[in-house]
Write a structure and sequence with these properties.
single chain, alpha/beta, Rossmann fold, 7-stranded mixed beta sheet, 5 helices, 7 strands, globular, binds guanosine-5'-triphosphate, binds magnesium ion
């Protein structure tokens, strides 16, 4: 096991806000559009492919999933923005994610995943806005970096920074496949844990 792995353990899966556990343990939300790689990122952080279910098909994660790390929860949220999902489902997930992000008392940080190859969407900006409004530490993760050539990385990161008005240190490059950015992300999450 690599030294920078977080000891992640799946704890629970919640389909309704009223089933959330008592807000006693600090939580870091992992969010991003459907298929961007949230579950893969959790597996990469935990050093296990089987921690969170991943899928080629968008819309795999439909519940709020809690993973216990040392002293905090990493919370895998359902992905947004997938067009082919029935409207009723979209609205249900939307309410779940919105309710969680706007009201969860134990939320202490947010990680927003963005595909390094895409221009951030309107919904990405909305999610960033909600996290900003909460005033919690924020990190944008430009993922699937293994899918672009080196030379394309700086302009892609600039596009992300400009769309969300971010500082350079608020965006890291990541790949669940090659491990790029994994130690940096684990370090950022650790910095949020109480000593
Ligand atoms: N090449 C590459 N593929 C990735 C990376 N991260 C995720 N993928 C692939 O992208 C697809 C979606 O990954 P998931 O981790 O299931 O995405 P998700 O954000 O959890 O998706 P939902 O649960 O549907 O919201 C899978 O086929 C993954 O193997 C990455 O860093 N590099
Ligand atoms: Mg998922």
């Amino acid at each position: 096991m690599a030294r920078d792995n977080l000891a992640l353990v799946f704890e629970s899966s919640i389909g309704r806000l009223r089933d959330l556990p008592p807000p006693e343990i600090p939580e870091v939300a992992i969010l991003g559009r459907s298929n961007v790689g949230k579950s893969s990122l959790l597996n990469a952080l935990g050093g296990s492919r089987r921690l969170a279910r991943t899928s080629r098909e968008p819309g795999r994660t439909r519940t709020i999933n809690f993973y216990r790390a040392d002293g905090l929860y990493l919370v895998d949220l359902p992905g947004y923005g997938y067009a082919a999902v029935p409207l009723e489902m979209k609205e249900r997930w939307g309410r779940l994610v919105e309710g969680y992000l706007q009201k969860r008392e134990s939320l202490i940080g947010g990680v927003l995943l963005l595909d390094v190859r895409r221009v951030p969407s309107e919904l990405d900006r909305v999610m960033h806005g909600w996290l900003q409004a909460r005033g919690v530490p924020f990190l944008a993760v430009a993922t699937k970096s293994d899918k672009v050539k080196r030379g394309a990385v700086p302009p892609a990161l600039r596009t992300i920074r400009e769309a969300l008005l971010l500082l350079p240190e608020q965006v890291i490059l990541f790949s669940a496949k090659t491990g790029t950015g994994r130690a940096e992300l684990a370090g950022w999450i650790r910095s949020l844990m109480k000593p």
